[in-house]
Each structure stands twice: as structure tokens, then as C-alpha cells.
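Exercise 7.
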Amino acid sequence: MLRLDELRELREMRLHNPRAVADAALRRVRRPLVGGGGRLMLIAADHPARGALGVRGDPLAMADRGELLRRLVAALGRPGVDGVLGTPDVVEDLLLLGALDGKVVFGSMNRGGLQGSVFELDDRFTGYDARSVVEYGLDGGKMLCRIDPSDPATVKTLESCGRAVSALARAGRAAMIEPFIAYREGAALRNDLSTAAVIRSVAVAAGLGATSAYTWLKLPVVDEMERVMAATTLPTLLLGGDPAGAQDETYADWQKALAVEGVRGLVVGRALLYPPDGDVEAAVDIAASLVAESAPKAGES
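Solution. The predicted structure, written as C-alpha cells, is:
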């Protein structure tokens, strides 16, 4: 649990000792990307940098950084949670708080496609790059790759993602691609979550970069996940998505999708950090148990 004095000390370190960030990154105890169970449970915290602060009916739910950090520290302290996905500011706060030892850390790379902007599909790489992923001892980089066949900005994002995949692979770091087929509905950008659209996005994402040896996919839970996973051999994590509907129904959907061959775990943010009842630990424990139960038992293939 994050205490008020720890938050004050964090602010003071950032003011008086910016070198502390790099020092904390060098001291961080690392672990293998994937453990013996072959499953990963990651907490996502890269939404704020894209201006996506809303959860359910509260448009500024994630705006209080101290409260977000409190929830992240609580989540990362639960059994079965392997690590975090975040932008530099969030990852560095967690580093300074000592919350990332023995954890997997993915750095979010492209946050330039701000939510609701006219340039949302021109998703520039404004966060981590492959070099900084290596310098800060991170385990990989994550990129959002939205594909709208009617928007010329898509090709810039595709090219940038391809370059990032290649650069991460050269450094021996994982590249996590989150692809969507997208379209405009008035001024709003929507993701097509039909099975056919997700399959198409998988095909495009898997082909990005000079090699796919280090590529992972991050995919939404949709109908017919068996057909989606039949489209790739790449290791895949399920994303939690925007929290909506009953929590029990969400857990049931995750459980079903985690049983599909090729699915290796979960990357969930708002649905666990801001559950309807406010009990972060309980929500995280349920999700972690679903991931653990999906791992093959001893003797199984």
C-alpha cells in the first residue's frame, strides 16, 4: 500500500535527484520473461499518456496520479501478478517506489494518437524506443497498431510499428503488438471487434518487422477465439478492454478465452485497477487465478 509520505518522497526525488530514475533502473532485479508455467499476468497502465483517463462513467477516474500509483502498487504486490505495462512516467514512478523488482516490465512506445483527436490514427512513437527499452532494462516494448483502410495515416503507423519490431528484435527484446481494424463513426474512432476483423488484424500485425521471432500479440476477447488463434503461431496475451457490464461476465469471458491454445495470459488495466466495488486486490486475485488455472498441469502438453 502506497503511503502519503512515500508519495511526498517520490515528488522530492523527482525534484532534487532526477538521476535516481536511471539508478533505480540499474538496480532493479530482473527475472525471465516467461516462467515455468508459460503464462503471464500483466497490469496495464499506459492509458493516461493517450489522454484516456475515463473508467465507466467517470471521465477523469485515472487523473489522480497518487491514487493510480496506490492501486498499481497494490496490484503488483498480489501473488500471480508478473509485471506491468506502462509509459516512462508511470514505470519510473514505480521504479522509484521499489515496486518492480522481480517483475516483467513492458514499455509503451506509441502514445501520439490521442483519444478523440483528429490525428488519432497517426499514432506517433512518443514514448519508449528500442534503445531506451534496453538502457532501462525493460523486457520489451508494446505498440498500438490501429488499421483503418480508409485513412492514409494508417500506413505511417504500420511503418513505424514495423521498424520498432525490427529494432526490438535486434536487441533481443519482446515486441508486443496490439492490432485493431478501426473505422470512423462520425468524429469517433471505433475498433471493429468482429471475429473476421480481429483475424485480419492478426495477419497484418504478425507480418510487421524484419523478423517475428520476438513478437507477441495483445488481442481483445471476441467471439470465436479459436478461429482468431488459429490465424497465428505467435504467443498471445488477452487485453482486458474498456470495463463494461457485469464483472462476473467479464471473468467468465476471460476464463473461456484463456483456455484456447496459444493464449498465454492477460494484460488488464482499468478493469482491475478500478473495479466497481473498489477492491483492487480481490479483482486482481480473481484474474491471476484464472491465468494460473489455464496453465498446463504437470504431464500435460
